[in-house]
TrEMBL record, chains A, B:
Keywords: DNA-binding, Transcription, Transcription regulation. It comes from the Bacteria. SMART domains: HTH_LACI (SM00354). Residues 8-62 form the HTH lacI-type domain. InterPro entries: HTH_LacI (IPR000843), LacI/GalR-like_sensor (IPR046335), Lambda_DNA-bd_dom_sf (IPR010982), Peripla_BP_I (IPR028082). This is LacI family transcriptional regulator.
Length: 345, 345
DNA sequence: GCGGGCGGTGAGAGCGCTCTCGACGACCCG
DNA sequence: CGGGTCGTCGAGAGCGCTCTCACCGCCCGC
């Protein structure tokens, strides 16, 4: 343990500035109702002493923490293959920092951890939570709700039951999927297949729905279920080639899957995009740009998504905003996507 | 704001169990020196009331927070292209969770943020810090030191000045590089080139040193400086082909760079590995497995690195451990690497 | 010229917890 | 059988802050 010099207290600052604790407190917290002359003297004392408020003492009385929990309930796979997660965190971090809030990160590991997270959130250590829980059967949303703590979800949660007052920020997965498939159709392709993502996640379901919106009466054999992984993409593509060797386009539920599909197509002697055009989803840069050929894909602004989630939550927490909100509660947001054309379609 | 029911206090539990506050506190914190009969009664009361200790009140008196900061000082690029960061976080999170510590994440954005981070750390909101700051000129290490807060660095820091007592966990970059180059030599290659990483990071410097260890008197033209990015890898590879068209192997400082190099080699009509063998570094799965051909590379156990960093810091913070430590201060760790053979070399 | 406001300031009471210290039996030894 | 020791527990004093409330000048209006 490093011995830290005893940090100056409000008391010390007050003594130095020749005022009372209350006045120093007022100045430190915005300084309303303190005459400028005095305030100036206090600020000077604060600087000289290097005073930093003790957050614990402050929280004890205000019952606020200026801290937000970010709960990530991904069992390895997805989050850690993508830089996804990092991007969202960055967006969140930016927004929180701008409002002097801290980011407490909770990563969960299997079921047991849910209890721990629930306890933590219910324990009132943070003012709110941003939750990433993309699986349909996830207990987290209920847990959060029963913890009685304000929360915003990343991605549309889809649990059975009351959805009132549930805030989330999602990407327009369905619309993005439609754009992708329409793009393929616009290229003159008619036998457009879809390799789905893991269908226990709303994003995968929505992308599939988007595909169906355009391909209203597609051959069901053109739809192959997969799991968002490259290996899954390979398997699905093989299956697809067996079912419909005449397939001339593939819309994969994400870039990783598309990369797997691309490899199988190459193996099978198909040229991309000449014989089969391929579109992915996510625009994971190190992947989408590195594939052979580079991948046409649907981009989503992940960082913005994080930023928005944080903003929504902070607004929810701010009593001032709560007043303004009368008659217009803050609502969930769905972000647009854009098609990024590269060589694969 | 959600109205949270007033949470029960120690006082309430004490009343219910018919004991004093002090006794409840003892039970809650391990229960030494309390007769089992009483302790049992207290635990029952805790359960019934759903009591959760107020961390703020506790911190106020103990001056401990059971929270550590993770500071990531990466200007975008590296961290967010790799799943690197996510893996490390996971390792850290696991270890911290196991010891009931919270993880406060601080991402920095340019210079201004350093001051903010410094203030935060000096403010005594956390017990220690894990710092990722891979750039030679980074002010963070000094800042941390002057904040007087225990810290462990991820990657060997390299600032001028006193290094005593500086703890870090690093990967054996130099050894891994040696292995990579020896592997290429073992394949019968003699004109082995190296595309470096950004040389303002110790990892890049160490990898270059490892290359030099084996290629003691290599043609300097075989060494091309780059920056860890795919685009940089492409540029470097072009330069290399211009300088030494007879190059028969490339050791790239990381997988992203290798992927860029691979693309240029393909363009130029070289076959990999027949004409030119390529080895990367990091084993970033979604990249290394997706390249054409799949990349032989040097793997580092990133998650373990995070775990170790946390363990080191926690030990540093634990007064008990401090006693045991007499005569043997905890020291930095360098993790081994392993060569992963795929198709590119 | 005097009372009522009012803006500015200080005194003091807690927030919920830990921890020291002293009290109090029970138990042991001589 | 008396004095000391040990284990167990409660009383109470803060930790550093916010916030209410009372107080004190001063300015205004009549």
């Amino acid at each position: 343990m490093t011995d830290t010099a005893p940090r100056p207290t409000l008391e010390a600052v007050a003594a130095r500035a020749g005022v009372s604790r209350a006045t120093v407190s007022r100045v430190v917290n915005g300084g309303d109702g303190v005459r400028e002359r005095l305030a100036e003297r206090v600020r000077k004392a604060v600087d000289e002493l290097g005073y930093v408020p003790n957050q614990a003492a402050r929280s004890l009385v205000t019952r606020r923490h200026d801290a937000i929990a970010v709960v990530v309930a991904e069992p390895e796979a997805r989050v850690f293959a993508d830089p996804f997660f990092a991007r969202q965190l960055r967006g969140i971090s930016k927004e929180l920092t701008a409002h002097d809030n801290q980011l407490v990160l909770l990563l969960t590991e299997g079921r047991d951890d849910h209890a721990r997270v629930g306890r933590y959130l219910a324990g009132g250590h943070v003012d709110g939570a941003l939750v990433f829980s993309l699986h349909l059967d996830d207990p987290l949303p209920k847990l959060i709700r029963s913890a009685g703590i304000p929360a915003v979800f990343g991605g549309r949660p889809d649990w059975n039951g009351d959805q009132r007052g549930v805030l989330y920020v999602d990407v327009d997965n369905r619309g993005g999927a439609r754009d992708a498939v329409r793009h393929l159709a616009g290229l003159g392709r008619s036998r457009i297949a879809h390799i789905t993502g893991a269908l226990d996640q709303t994003s995968a379901v929505d992308r599939l729905d988007g595909y169906r919106d355009v391909m209203v009466d597609a051959d069901p054999r053109l739809i192959v279920e997969s799991d968002f992984t490259p290996a899954g993409g390979e398997r699905a593509m093989r299956e697809l080639l067996a079912r419909r060797p005449d397939v001339d386009a593939v819309f994969a539920a994400n870039d990783l899957t598309a990369a797997g599909a691309l490899r199988v197509l190459r193996e099978s002697g198909r040229r991309v995009p000449d014989d089969v055009a391929v579109v992915g989803f996510d625009d994971i840069l190190p992947v989408a740009e590195q594939t052979e050929p580079p991948l046409t894909t649907v981009r989503q602004d992940i960082e913005e998504m994080g930023r928005l989630m944080a903003r929504l939550l902070l607004r929810e927490l701010d009593p001032r905003a709560a007043e303004e909100r009368v008659g217009g509660t803050p609502s969930s947001v769905v972000l647009p996507t854009t098609l990024v054309r590269r060589a694969s379609a």
